[in-house]
Write a structure and sequence with these properties.
By secondary structure, this protein is of the alpha/beta class. It has helices at 15-28, 46-49, 57-62, 97-108, 153-168, 189-200, 212-220, 224-227, 232-245, 258-266, and strands at 3-9, 33-38, 74-75, 81-84, 119-125, 144-149, 176-182, 204-208.
Length: 273
């Protein structure tokens, strides 16, 4: 049975770095992986493909070639299949439309059901969990969801909003794998995220320190875990992939209200609030 993993986070927080390196680690383990980029920037699979601008599903639909959609399925790092949903022209149309169209097509092609893949990884923009961006939260898609954040307030705010969106789709089965702390080097960053994780009752499953070699790998357009295998951060990604493969426990969504969130992040938490 294919396992479906969604990586959510604020734009620019590093969710594509996490997604691509997680896909690469699973591929290194011999797993059959497909990564679906659900960000209008369509750069999620860049390092897996060694290219900057793959043909997107929305590009193909705009060209009036829906029957040629398999041209958007591009094989990348160690057989990883890469698909980018794409987005509208800047200032025109709904940014989430590419995701909606992509999911419809992938269901039609049989990619999202039991298939030849071991894992489907969704890389999803999470500044606003609405419309097309919320599609991977639906029960028929992601089995497990990871939330990427730094210690910056707006990143944590987006993370809490994502958790709120997950709760709206929750039933009696927990689906949050945990929080990924992608450090930006801000003051008290770790403490802030730890306080947030404690408040929403989620584990921090990976701590990724700021590392210039991550940027260097992105400039080389290759997965970081392949470019710098001996870097301790690469082992962090490998451990996360191993935990997923071994069936790490999921958790229920317990977002906090906005006023309490600010107090939590600033370190002034009143448990009676």
């Amino acid at each position: 049975m294919t396992r479906q993993i969604a990586i959510y986070g604020k734009g620019g927080i590093g969710k594509s770095t996490v997604s691509a390196n997680l896909s690469a680690c699973l591929a290194d383990m011999g797993k059959r992986v497909v990564q679906i980029g659900c960000d209008p920037k369509h750069d999620s699979t860049r390092s897996l493909l060694g290219m900057t601008h793959p043909l997107t599903v929305l590009d193909m639909l705009r060209d009036g070639r829906p029957d040629d959609i398999k041209e958007c399925f591009i094989e990348g790092y160690k057989g990883t299949m890469c698909i980018e949903a794409g987005g509208p022209e800047p200032g025109v149309g709904c940014a989430g439309r590419g995701i909606l169209s992509t999911m419809e097509i992938l269901k039609r092609e049989g990619i999202l059901g039991p298939s030849q893949y071991d894992y489907i990884i969704y890389d999803v923009l999470g500044d606003v969990v609405c419309g097309g961006f919320a599609v991977p939260l639906r029960r028929e898609f992601a089995d497990t969801i990871y939330v990427v954040t730094s210690g910056e307030f707006m990143s944590i705010y987006a993370a809490n909003n994502i958790i709120r969106g997950i709760k709206n789709y929750e039933t009696d089965t927990p689906r949050i794998g945990g929080i990924v702390l992608n450090s930006r080097g801000g003051s008290n960053e770790t403490e802030r995220v730890e306080r947030f994780a404690d408040e929403v009752e989620l584990p921090i499953v990976a701590r990724i320190p700021r590392d210039e070699q991550i940027q260097e790998a992105e400039e080389k357009v290759i997965p970081f875990v392949d470019a710098f295998k001996e870097n301790p951060v690469a082992e962090t990604f490998r451990r996360m992939a191993a935990d997923i493969e071994n069936g790490r426990e999921n958790h229920f969504a317990r977002p906090v209200d906005e006023d309490h969130l600010e107090k939590c992040v600033l370190g002034v938490v009143d448990k009676e609030f």
